[in-house]
Amino acid sequence: MAGTSRSLVAGFTGRACILGAVPIARKEAAMPKRNGPTRRAMLQGTALAGAAAALPLTGRAQSIPKYGTTKFDYEVVRTEEEWRARLSEREYGILRAGGTELPKSDPKWSDYSAGSYHCRGCELPLYSSDWRAPLSHGWVFFYHADTDAVLTGLDRGNPYRGDAPQMGGDADLDPKRTLIEVHCRRCGSHLGHIVYLDGNLVHCINGTSLGFTGAA
């Protein structure tokens, strides 16, 4: 698994939840745009960026075709047509194109019901409600992921949003400006980022990326 690291129960967590996140925008399908600073601009120079820089830097997986060049053999592989048939436009924009939902746009951010969370792309169990972090910033926060459930990678910026220049390789990345992204270990779908927020190192996850099964 060159360029990829596993996240254990005490390990790292999720991507698209960043203060000042911007709505998803793609060339193929126009999505509503939000005025003001971009997601990345809001992060740079903050404690969140410092936390990301302190974590191990790993290569971005190829399963999401808009990102990186590092090859990794995922258990679940689908064509673009199959992904689009399986997911809604909103889900595709986040899980497969690496977008970020607007804060408080998915109801799971404030629902602390007991149960488990799974990947919307392949149903792999990812998180437990026992690990929810009670933060009120509008995304779904966890202290930990399930063992071997997620992988981490470098977030080089989404070429469909144009919020950061595209860089040629890991050697070009500025650790102070690079975010740690979290994606599903089984299908490579984007989940969120690792952030340092309100004194906690947490997985900041898009609710759209998750399915939920309530406790029996």
TrEMBL record:
Alphabetically ordered keywords of this record: Oxidoreductase
The enzyme's E.C. designation: 1.8.4.12
Any one GO molecular-function label of the UniProt entry: peptide-methionine (R)-S-oxide reductase activity
Enzyme class: oxidoreductase
GO CC, alphabetical: cytoplasm
Residue runs in coiled coils: none
Single GO BP term: response to oxidative stress
SUPFAM superfamilies, per database record: Mss4-like
PROSITE patterns on file: MSRB, TAT
Residue span, MsrB domain: 80-215
Superkingdom: Bacteria
InterPro entries cross-referenced by the UniProt entry: Met_Sox_Rdtase_MsrB, Met_Sox_Rdtase_MsrB_dom, Mss4-like_sf, TAT_signal
Catalytic activity: L-methionyl-[protein] + [thioredoxin]-disulfide + H2O = L-methionyl-(R)-S-oxide-[protein] + [thioredoxin]-dithiol
Name the record gives this protein: peptide-methionine (R)-S-oxide reductase
The species this protein was found in: Halovulum marinum
Lineage: Bacteria, Pseudomonadati, Pseudomonadota, Alphaproteobacteria, Rhodobacterales
